[in-house]
């Protein structure tokens, strides 16, 4: 479904991604692991069209999407839930959610809205509250809800458990599994290495702009090299 | 060192914090836990003087500081950090740390020297001249801690300094905080990364819907039914109990 080949990208003279190849099949959960600053978010932003790569292509369902603006990529069915929530603080929860369906699935807006309220009962209680007054965890839920409002085929989640309490992290991972069971492929960037590998089918490990490990998630979880580098074990 | 009694705060009709009390002894590392939206950060803002409590009192080093402005509280030796770290992007890492140091070092050279020393102690020696905008999340979190330390504060209120870090980076920060404590500082920390809470905090308070529901040693709290229901969840609690058992 998604095919990334030979992607190089950076900022000015700083090369961040140095030849990335990655495939995501329909219905997969893929974990993207790596320390802070290795280029995970840059890769997400190349796929989403925010950053134009200096080389390489991204194909989605067979079509080259490299160079398309983000709005067209969203319309094709790729939604990103960015790191750091990035909700609109001065709009209400309801307005934030509705904006998620601005480029896609606008016909289903009522149905999806209802679905988000069911998945996130906390948001239902606060629909008319300004999003900026939500707690950190609630803002994270809103950001994910907004992403899902476009009925994406591929959902990119950049650190969705950031700042969430343990019970919410658990719920978040259960939720990702549930979203995936509904047929949405998920690209998951997470600092919760153990839990992400627990729900992912495959994983890629990024270091210095290149993949240094990839494969079956269960196999990576048992890999002593990974355990030492990321878990400090 | 810090005595908080009966803090209460409402926003509109919502009671964010009601009748919350806690104590932090000098040299301690105390955790403040609780679900998202429980009122933890609101407690911090009241303790550090950023918002005025509707009721209750805060005593620091024996002095009633309720209602004092943040910069006065900071000058007395208590400071908080922020969840979303916002360094001065155009300044270098060292200059950012120096912003904190100016509180007690009015000479630029003095402040920069203090900033350099603190930066090095926090393992940022090679990054001092780089623009703060070039830091990763892990670096920015460390900078936030450095800037707070540079004010000379003895009690640091840390708001989720581990969020966004991978486990190996968490271990590093845990080591740094322990070392700073041994150098004579005291910590009250809001933290969801239980790996860090379990290994750092001697005691912790748990806030739920604005009320304190538990207080005790982390290894006992992970067995507390109310804490499990409200905050940890059964899966995380089971893992943490197992880890505590091994420790």
What's the end-to-end separation of chain A, in Å? 35 Å
Domain count of chain B, please report it.
1
Helical content of chain B (DSSP H or I, runs of 4+): 40-55%
Into which percentage range does the β-strand content of chain A fall? 25-35%
- Tally of individual helices of chain A: 10
The 3D shape of chain A can be described as globular
CATH topology of chain B: Rossmann fold
The largest beta-sheet of chain B arranges its strands as 6-7-8-3-9-10
Uncertain residue ranges of chain A: none
Structural class designation of chain A? alpha/beta
Q: Summarize the helix and strand pattern of chain B as letters.
A: EEEHEEHEHHHEHEHEEHH
**What is the terminal-to-terminal distance of chain B?**
29 Å
Instruction: Give helix % range of chain A.
Output: 25-40%
Low-confidence stretches of chain B: none
Largest interface: A-B, 30 and 32 residues
Number of helices of chain B: 9
Average pLDDT confidence of chain B is: 91
Which percent band covers the strand fraction of chain B? 15-25%
Q: What is the CA-atom radius of gyration of chain B, in angstroms? A: 18 Å
Q: Please give the CATH class of chain B.
A: Alpha Beta
Overview of the molecule:
The complex is a heterodimer of chains A (233) and B (247). With 233 residues, chain A is of the alpha/beta class. Helix content of chain A is 38%, strand content 26%. Chain A has a six-stranded mixed β-sheet, sandwiched between helices. A four-stranded antiparallel β-sheet of chain A has the order 2-1-4-5, covered by helices on one side. In chain A, helix 3 packs parallel to helix 6. Chain B is α/β, with parallel strands linked by helices and 247 residues long. Chain B has one domain: Rossmann fold. Chain B is built from nine helices and ten strands. In chain B, helix 6 links the parallel strand 7 and strand 8. In chain B, 49% of the residues are buried. At the A-B interface, helix 6, helix 7 and helix 10 of A face helix 5, helix 6 and helix 9 of B.
């Amino acid at each position: 479904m998604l095919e990334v080949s030979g992607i190089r990208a950076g900022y000015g003279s700083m090369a961040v991604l140095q030849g990335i190849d990655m495939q995501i099949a329909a219905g997969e959960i893929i974990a993207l692991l790596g320390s802070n600053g290795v280029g995970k978010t840059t890769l997400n932003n190349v796929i989403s069209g925010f950053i134009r790569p200096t080389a390489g292509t991204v194909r989605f369902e067979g079509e080259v999407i490299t160079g398309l603006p983000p709005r067209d990529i969203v319309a094709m069915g790729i939604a990103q839930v960015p790191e750091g929530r990035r909700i609109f603080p001065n709009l209400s929860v309801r307005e934030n959610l509705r904006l998620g369906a601005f480029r896609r699935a606008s016909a289903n807006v009522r149905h999806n809205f209802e679905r988000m309220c069911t998945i996130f009962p906390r948001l239902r209680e606060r629909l008319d509250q300004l999003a900026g007054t939500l707690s950190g965890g609630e803002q994270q839920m809103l950001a994910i809800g907004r992403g899902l409002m476009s009925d994406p085929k591929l959902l990119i989640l950049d650190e969705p458990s950031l700042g969430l309490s343990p019970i919410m992290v658990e719920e978040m991972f259960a939720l990702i599994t549930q979203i995936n069971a509904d047929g949405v492929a998920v690209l998951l960037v997470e600092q919760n290495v153990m839990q992400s590998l627990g729900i992912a089918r495959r994983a890629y490990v990024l270091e210095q702009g290149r993949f240094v490990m990839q494969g079956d998630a269960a196999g990576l979880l048992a890999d002593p090299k990974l355990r030492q580098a990321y878990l400090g074990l | 060192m810090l005595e908080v009694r009966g803090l209460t705060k409402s926003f509109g009709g919502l009671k964010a914090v009601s009748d919350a009390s806690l104590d932090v002894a000098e040299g301690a590392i105390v955790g403040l836990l609780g679900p998202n939206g429980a009122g933890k950060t609101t407690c911090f803002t009241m303790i550090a003087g950023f918002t005025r409590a509707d009721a209750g009192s805060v005593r620091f080093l024996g002095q009633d500081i309720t209602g004092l402005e943040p910069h006065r509280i900071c000058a007395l030796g208590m400071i908080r950090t922020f969840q979303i770290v916002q360094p001065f992007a155009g300044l270098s890492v060292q200059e950012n740390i120096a912003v904190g140091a100016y509180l007690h070092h009015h000479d630029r050279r003095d402040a920069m020297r203090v900033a350099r020393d603190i930066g090095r102690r926090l393992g940022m020696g090679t990054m001092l001249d780089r623009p703060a905008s070039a830091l990763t999340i892990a670096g920015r979190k460390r900078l936030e801690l450095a800037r707070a330390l540079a004010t000379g504060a003895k009690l640091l209120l840390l708001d989720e300094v581990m969020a966004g870090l991978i486990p190996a980076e968490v271990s590093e920060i845990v080591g740094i905080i322990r070392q700073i404590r041994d150098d004579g500082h005291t910590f009250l920390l809001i933290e969801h990364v239980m790996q860090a809470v379990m290994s750092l905090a001697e005691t912790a308070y748990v806030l739920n819907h604005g009320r304190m529901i538990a207080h005790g040693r982390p290894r006992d709290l992970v067995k507390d039914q109310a804490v499990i229901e409200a905050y940890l969840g059964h899966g995380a609690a089971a893992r943490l109990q197992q880890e505590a058992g091994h420790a």
